[in-house]
Amino acid sequence: MATDLFQSPDYYQLDELLSEEHLLVREATRDWVKKEVTPIIEDYAQRAEFPKHIVNGLAEVGAFGPYIPQEYGGAGLDQISYGLMMQEIERGDSGVRSTCSVQSSLVMYPIYKYGNEEQRKKYLPKLASGEFLGCFGLTEPDHGSNPGGMITNFKDKGDHYLLNGAKMWISNAPFADIAVVWAKDETGRIHGLIVERGMEGFTTPETHNKWSLRASATGELVFDNVKVPKENLLPNKSGLGAPLGCLDSARFGIAWGAIGAAMDCYDTALRYAKERIQFEKPIASFQLQQKKLAEMITEITKAQLLTWRLGVLRNEDKATSAQISMAKRNNVDMALKIAREARQMLGGMGISGEYSIMRHMMNLESVVTYEGTHDIHLLITGMDVTGIPAFK
Ligand SMILES: Cc1cc2nc3c(=O)[nH]c(=O)nc-3n(C[C@H](O)[C@H](O)[C@H](O)COP(=O)(O)OP(=O)(O)OC[C@H]3O[C@@H](n4cnc5c(N)ncnc54)[C@H](O)[C@@H]3O)c2cc1C
Q1: Cα 201 to Cα 181: distance, rounded to the nearest angstrom
Q2: In this structure, are 279 and 378 located in the same domain?
Q3: pTM (2 decimals)?
Q4: Dist CA 304 CA 288 (whole Å)
Q5: What is the pLDDT of residues 220-271, one digit of tens each?
Q6: Stretch 296-321: mean pLDDT, rounded?
Q7: Cβ(391) to ligand 1 under 6 A?
Q8: Does residue 59 lie in a domain region?
Q9: How far is the centre of ligand 1, averaged over its atoms, from the C-alpha of 145 (Å)?
């Protein structure tokens, strides 16, 4: 990729709503992404390889557990700082942001919230430092949008649990050191279990041939009579609400992250349109291209306002799951539409890896599906406003 010339749009002077700390966190993450992610990410995506060497850097900028208390190795930041970090990292690549979301919100968060003190001390500092990478196993081959139907299960064998089943589409699975796995007990109640690489009967085959999130590794989790020590069960919450609580936290980060991808596409298209000459004029001078840019910046600004307000609500512990759903759905859809329009504005160059747009566009096809599909989030809003679930 060419030099990273990214300039962040702030059409409504939203920086005035941010604290000194927010701005510092954002600048530090942005600088790090410019130095360590954008120069290399296209090559890794083309090769469908996760850039493992950036894990230490991600840990150093605080992207693993930004809001986890410092006593457990986290950065102890607020929700808006967490969001801004995800925005900047996804500006680089949605796959890299996915790794951070999984590590922070789907692995560290459940251990912090639902684990006991021993589990927190054992795992959180290693996850925060990047010594351990984690993954989150909820989706199964036959249960995606409806995780409550899962068949992965464990039986109490006295001194251990015996785990059987399989998970699919699991980010980070191929190299994860630990997996937070959701499985049913003998009464059908869902619990979280920490499964460690090396446990007999536990394998993590990689999923190949993805056209999306190519710089993020995806795989299966297969449990064939895995003996899980009893102390690996997360004791403080059970039921479907437990994994859904983790998803709230991750979806919040995705709502911010999608803005980063959209900003990168807009910024690239704006610069290109001013420089590209056709019919003796910059293409930015044509009304059709201006319409695209004007609509992009309008949608980015609306999304920024939505997430900023959601961040304030999260900081006050007042944000509802349905509010988070709305932001995830709106912002990812917004980013995907902007990526498609921006790609067109670059003409043939839009499909080239010399620019980030096509990679963002392909990545966002996963982001619009995982952590609750676009349609499922719409049903959540529908249920919230009518009081009537339309899932079944
Ligand atoms: C790259 C990638 C990474 C992922 N990482 C993880 C991970 O780390 N951990 C994890 O647990 N999962 C992960 N997932 C899985 C992801 O969360 C699921 O793919 C997603 O929840 C959708 O499930 P599904 O693919 O089984 O689709 P399905 O549930 O089969 O849905 C298919 C279609 O039917 C629609 N649909 C389903 N039910 C309804 C309904 N009631 N009404 C109307 N429409 C409906 C959906 O909106 C969708 O359009 C990942 C997925 C991808 C692609």
Answers
A1: 14
A2: yes
A3: 0.97
A4: 25
A5: 999 999 999 999 999 999 999 999 999 999 999 999 999 999 999 999 999 9
A6: 98
A7: yes
A8: yes
A9: 5
